[in-house]
Design a protein that fits this description.
Distance between the termini: 19 Å
Order of helices and strands: EEHEHEE
CATH class: Alpha Beta
Largest sheet: 5 strands, mixed
Number of helices: 2
Shape: elongated
Structural class: alpha+beta
Number of strands: 5
Number of domains: 1
CATH architecture: 2-Layer Sandwich
Strand content: 25-35%
Length: about 120
């Protein structure tokens, strides 16, 4: 079955400290995180698009704006979980998935914490 894919990217800056296995925190440090949101679906809408960039992009920007210029450890989503790149990707997915049309699904959220290191959440 044929599938359409759409990719929207954005960036935000934030700091974090991972909790190490011994319970200590790594040194506080920040990243300029790059986010890739992948959408997929088998059918196009009345405009012949999978999803309207002008609708989905502001939704992604709003989620990332809540993370921008913050210490991720202070975010409610990371009170019980490490603010790892993998968890950041899942958080973005979980906040956006309910906003997608029934014919569109998020196939992947990839988050880059450096230009050479990324993690993805694939539902």
């Amino acid at each position: 079955m044929a599938t359409y894919e759409l990719l929207i990217t954005t960036e935000f800056s934030a700091a974090h400290q991972l909790r190490l296995p011994d319970g200590t925190l790594e040194p506080l440090h920040g990243h300029n995180w790059k986010v890739e949101l992948y959408l997929e679906g088998a059918q196009l809408d009345q405009m012949d698009v999978l999803a309207d960039f002008t609708v989905v992009r502001p939704q992604l920007l709003a989620v990332c704006a809540e993370l921008h210029d913050t210490h991720l450890n202070d975010h409610p989503a990371f009170q019980a979980d490490n603010p790892s790149t993998e968890r950041v990707a899942k958080l973005i997915h979980d906040q956006l998935a309910p906003k997608m049309a029934e014919t569109v699904r998020i196939s992947r959220v990839r988050v880059w914490e450096t230009s050479t290191c990324a993690a993805a959440y694939i539902p």
